[in-house]
Design a protein that fits this description.
Strands 1-2 form a two-stranded antiparallel sheet. The protein has twelve helices and two strands, in the order H-H-H-H-H-H-H-E-H-H-H-H-H-E. Helix 3 runs antiparallel to helix 4 and helix 8 runs antiparallel to helix 9. By secondary structure, it is mainly alpha-helical. Helices cover 61% and strands 2% of the residues.
């Protein structure tokens, strides 16, 4: 699977349409995978299966989609590829679990607070007005945080879970050639990424480096910050592409002349396995359907 990081050029009829559609679909699959990966890594206590997933060929292939545009994501790809040799190392797994506790549980002060409200509010506290705005963004898509009213809704892992759900919906709308739904989903994601992720994750990533030894979480804090910055640009370009490609009635021009499973079946199988991965504590950082 390979494609440029930027959205394809404006729609063209004929043979070029297939390449444009394939390029865009590759990015829609890749970003879905990465949002789910960041959700898992930043949301639950690590185990051997998670380390294996991070080091998998699928994960490194997806990161490679963005490596040319981001030195940070290129470095994360290199880091991830080496984790396979450490997945069975009990000492390393214990060190990563200790680091997870230091980053997300305490009892000492966390190196990097993982909630948006602590960066954008008047004080470094959770459950500020911005938290309610995030909650409404989830609600507008028929979703809520699984920890509703127990813990803040604006945890980085929950945000990635939300974007993962919307990314899946976006891929489905693209494959069904539903231009109207695709545009609405892309617009909602651009608004959320720009309003609630790019505004604080660079500070989160900088704070995450304030450690003596970095086992896993500083690297992934850097990675998620770099990724959402690229994704914001992609969403803007993809919206322009949809505007150029939609015809009367809301459908997209063109039909795929390729079998999506032949190109993306392997990574989508890995995505389903990653999505099903159960980690201790991840249940508090999910998004679920309203009602």
């Amino acid at each position: 699977m390979s494609a440029a990081v930027t959205a394809p050029a404006p729609f063209e009829a004929g043979a070029a349409a297939r390449d444009e559609l394939l390029s865009l679909e590759a990015l829609l699959v890749s970003r879905t995978y990465l949002y789910v990966l960041f959700h898992k890594v930043l949301g639950g206590e690590p185990n051997e299966a998670l380390l294996v997933a991070i080091a998998s060929r699928e994960a490194t292939d997806v990161l490679d989609e963005y490596a040319a545009e981001s030195e940070t994501l290129a470095n994360l790809k290199g880091f991830a590829s080496k984790l396979g040799a450490k997945a069975g190392d009990r000492g390393y797994l214990d060190a990563v679990r200790d680091e997870f506790a230091r980053f997300f549980e305490g009892p000492a002060d966390l190196p990097a607070l993982p909630w948006e409200s602590t960066y954008v509010g008047s004080e470094s506290t959770v459950f500020q007005p911005s938290t309610l705005v995030v909650r409404e963004a989830y609600r507008s898509q028929g979703l809520r945080a699984s920890c509703l009213k127990r813990m803040p809704d604006d945890h980085v892992s929950i945000m990635c879970a939300f974007m993962g759900v919307l990314s899946r919906r976006t891929l489905a709308a693209f494959r069904s050639r539903d231009g109207s739904a695709l545009r609405d989903l892309l617009a909602a994601q651009r608004s959320f990424v720009e309003g609630h992720m790019t505004n604080w994750l660079s500070d989160y990533a900088a704070n995450a480096l304030r450690v003596r030894v970095a086992h896993l979480y500083p690297q992934f804090a850097q990675g998620v910050s770099a990724f959402v910055g690229l994704d914001a640009g992609f969403l803007s370009e993809a919206l322009q592409w949809v505007d150029d490609a939609v015809v009367d009635g809301g459908a997209l021009h063109g039909k795929a002349t390729y079998d999506s499973a032949a190109y993306f079946g392997r990574v989508e199988t890995a995505l389903e396995e990653l999505s099903a991965l159960e980690l201790k504590g991840i249940e508090d950082n999910e998004v679920v359907q309203l009602g």
